[in-house]
């Protein structure tokens, strides 16, 4: 990371004792974008991941896209609770939502942020030992037949519409 200089407009000064390092001037707003805002995104990811229900939802969505009603059934939570968690996750960019008639279908984003990708891999390692995650995946297998229509909806939304 290139150091920021608060004295905007002046050329960066190199330390005469250390010739191996040269600093480059970066405008203050650009420095903030590179450090603070990327850190904020990371903080949002951690805040979102610090809840067991959201971790369980991410674990399920790492398997396949799901409707709110399916997540609700697997987690044994109310529709309101599940929707609030999903809304927070969507706001933080951890999930994507697609409406199909009366249903909201949630999935992991097509382009996953690097930090989130690393945490998803870690989550996949952890679920092997945690009973609650194992039971969620078993419940998902039981209702798999009820979820097949979601795959078709996702495929039709991804493919370009045909002109009639």
Describe this protein with a few key phrases.
164 residues, Arc Repressor Mutant, subunit A, 3 strands, 57% helix
Can you walk me through this structure?
57% of the residues lie in helices and 7% in strands. By secondary structure, it is mainly alpha-helical. It has a single domain, classed as Arc Repressor Mutant, subunit A (Orthogonal Bundle), CATH 1.10.10.10. Helix 3 crosses helix 4. The chain is globular, with a radius of gyration of 22 Å. The model is unreliable at 1-20 (pLDDT under 50).
Task: Outline the fold blueprint.
Blueprint: H1 28-49, H2 52-61, E1 66-67, H3 68-75, H4 79-91, E2 96-100, E3 103-107, H5 114-126, H6 131-142, H7 144-158
Antiparallel strand pairs: 1-3, 2-3
What's this model, at a glance?
The chain is mainly alpha-helical.
Count of the domains: 1
Euclidean distance between termini CA atoms = 53 Å
Task: Name the helicity range.
Answer: 55-70%
- CATH class category name: Mainly Alpha
Average pLDDT metric? 75
Looking at how many chains there are and whether they match, the oligomeric state comes to single chain
Would you list the SSEs in sequence order as H and E?
HHEHHEEHHH
CATH architecture descriptor text: Orthogonal Bundle
Q: Can you list the strand order of the major beta sheet?
A: 1-3-2
| C-alpha geometry | globular
Describe the main β-sheet briefly. 3 strands, antiparallel
CATH homolog superfamily: Winged helix-like DNA-binding domain superfamily/Winged helix DNA-binding domain
The amount of beta strand, in percent, is 5-15%
> CATH fold name, please?
Arc Repressor Mutant, subunit A
């Amino acid at each position: 990371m290139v150091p920021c200089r608060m004295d905007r407009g002046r050329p960066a000064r190199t330390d005469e004792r250390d010739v191996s390092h040269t600093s480059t001037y970066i405008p203050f707003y650009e420095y903030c974008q590179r450090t603070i805002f990327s850190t904020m995104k990371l903080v949002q990811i951690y805040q979102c991941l610090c809840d067991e229900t959201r971790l369980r939802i991410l674990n399920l969505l790492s398997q396949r896209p799901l409707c709110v009603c399916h997540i609700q059934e697997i987690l044994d939570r109310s529709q309101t609770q599940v929707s609030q968690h999903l809304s927070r996750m969507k706001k933080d960019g951890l999930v994507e939502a697609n409406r199909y008639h009366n249903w909201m279908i949630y999935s992991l984003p097509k382009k996953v942020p690097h930090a989130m990708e690393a945490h998803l891999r870690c989550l996949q390692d952890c679920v092997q030992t945690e009973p609650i995650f194992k039971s969620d995946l078993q419940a998902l297998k039981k209702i798999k037949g009820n979820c097949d229509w979601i795959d078709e909806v996702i495929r039709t939304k991804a493919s370009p519409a045909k002109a009639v």
